[in-house]
Fold these 2 entries.
Entry 1:
Amino acid sequence: MSEAKPFRNRLNDLTPKDWLKFQKSWFIHNPPPRRKEVRRHPAKFPESMAQEFIEFFTKPGQMVFDPMAGTGSTLVASLRASRHAIGVELSPVYTEVARQLIQEETAKLGPPADGLRCEVITGDAARLEAINLPTMDYVLTSPPYWDMLHARGAQAQRSRRSSNDLDVTYSDDPADLGNVSDYGEFLDRLVEIYASLRPLLRPKAYLTIIVKNVKKGGRVYPLAWDLGMRLGGTYTLKDEKIWCQDDIRLAPYGLGNAWVSNTFHHYCLQFRWEP
Ligand SMILES: C[S@@+](CC[C@H](N)C(=O)[O-])C[C@H]1O[C@@H](n2cnc3c(N)ncnc32)[C@H](O)[C@@H]1O
């Protein structure tokens, strides 16, 4: 009788059981309470969630990249997963917070994390050619959700406005894509940034882009779907994994009058560079 072939895993170091768990096309992840330093950033994703993606799409020692790193969730998660990581972030304020968190995390983890390259650079993701970057094994990132942070009505924004310590928008820099009011221009510029990553990627590397469709002025702008369509010309769109949050209070939008959802899900779009 022939022996069963040993499980050979080229992508990551997960067991078949953990691999299977990650394959479900949706998941619930309620972000843990945020630390004071990162609360000022209007829209970060949780490190615990980022770590699950990094551990699926890379092996220890590989290089992870986030071109819009915010307060560095991708970088901190990479350290915890023993991967190298580089981030680029436009805002020097968030870059500074990310640096501080990386430093603290490195000290907390000790060896081998202190031997990992983990660095955040203040810069414009639209001008990456100005930065000397190594080959990347994986990209995990999330863009501004168009200019949603400028929306007056959004409930979360209203409570941020009344606090001095919390930013309502990322910055007033014209290079900040969160300040581009025309949807077509925003989409063009974002697609160009993601397409420009291709020469940096190892062939067969994956990119995960976490994004939401955006509601504005009574209609939906399908940002996630538009990105899927537009980037499909550069990378292969593999699928989406839907991140649901079920700890947010429902608001009575349109009650008794019209259909307006409480949107508590994000799309984690999986692309692959398949030359
Ligand atoms: C959704 S947030 C990313 C949050 C990050 N994933 C985290 O967990 O902290 C988007 C980030 O993109 C940054 N950004 C906007 N335009 C940029 C550009 N042209 N180059 C680099 N970063 C940019 C914003 O400052 C913001 O921090």
Note: The radius of gyration is 19 Å.
Entry 2:
Amino acid sequence: MDPALTPTLSQGERGQTPSPNRPIVIIGSGLAGYSVLREFRKRDQATPVTLICSDDGHFYSKPNLSNALVAGKSAEQLVSTPRAKMAADLKAEIVANTRVTAVDTTGKKVRWNGGETAYSKLILALGADPIPHGLAGPGADKVFAVNDLQDYAAFRSALKPGGRVAILGGGLIGSEFANDLAAAGYAVEVVHLGPWPLERLIPEPLGRALADALAEKHVVWHFGRAAKAIEPAGAGVALTLDDGSRVEADIVLSAIGLRSRTQLAAGAGLRVNRGIVVDKALQTSASDVYAVGDCAEVDGQVLPYVLPLMQQARALAATLAGERSELRYPPMPVVVKTPALPLAVLPPAPNAEGGWQVDCGDDGICALHLDDGKILQGFALAGQQAAQRAQYAAKVGRPA
Ligand SMILES: Cc1cc2nc3c(=O)[nH]c(=O)nc-3n(C[C@H](O)[C@H](O)[C@H](O)COP(=O)(O)OP(=O)(O)OC[C@H]3O[C@@H](n4cnc5c(N)ncnc54)[C@H](O)[C@@H]3O)c2cc1C
């Protein structure tokens, strides 16, 4: 057995032995898994819960990963609550460093290398994996992706003070890292396939304003380009872009997107699509098996952000406590952590009618997505305007 996968147990109560009753089992110790546990404990203190995770189970807030460099934070400093305290506070058994390899929905059991446990109800809170960057060969070992604390520790230790970092992808995570790295004194170049940053979320004027604000921090943009090859160059690497141009850097950060972890569910015969398919009660295609967070596709949508998973966790906790509850999302703006130009975005539904109406003023940019009847469908706010997100969120579905 891989020593890294030796199960580490934290008991909710000292001297407590695992309950002979089947526990509720949660797989995953990210924001989704722990939010379900926390919300459930507000309703039910007695039912045994076992949380199993392939990482160390210490609690941290993942969004902090993309603004921690300028604050000089190490991975250890980003842990807000150690696993043992989580177990004690939430009265749960936490089985850490344990990768679940199979789910048996008939026998209601989960298995890992060397062990298994039965469940009464199972919650999959498995998160998402970085999309593979596809760069292979010498130099590829200098390409990092930051999706958890271990990744962050490895990336941070590979950074040399004042060094050069090439970022693949100028979406939300790529742009946040560009801002954080530039503010921390690194020379940053971003290779982005789209015509402006976050082009799937914000209209062009805001994208250009964000690109300009980061360019003022010396971020160099390569729009409409993809990296095709990597090779060693001096102590670092050179990327060859699809127009033949080259970008040299000490290390590369891949931020080209995430893909829901669906393999475990697919292996168990659950219905999967872009994520693990669940209904509005977060129920998968198997009875007593639920999915939440970045791994879940709710009503056809994967929303890999904190506010949706909090809503999911509340609804699911009510269902687990015996009060079947369906998810109803309120408007949930996403705050983009780019202090060079603060942004708050509520993207319209993918097939929303109408278009953007953009107003630029001294206090920032306000872009409203209106349908043909001038009903507000979504918004993107930049600069001081971003502080108005709650007011605009309250107007969604009403005349702007
Ligand atoms: C750098 C970065 C910045 C972000 N910033 C923002 C932001 O500003 N605002 C926002 O709303 N969202 C942001 N997000 C997105 C947000 O952080 C995620 O939506 C959220 O953290 C996902 O939580 P999760 O619990 O679903 O997944 P994860 O945190 O990935 O947790 C998955 C868990 O499942 C476990 N696991 C997976 N497979 C197995 C298995 N087979 N056996 C056992 N355990 C398993 C893992 O070990 C882990 O504990 C950001 C994301 C990143 C990467």
Note: Confidence is low (pLDDT under 50) at residues 1-5, 13-19.
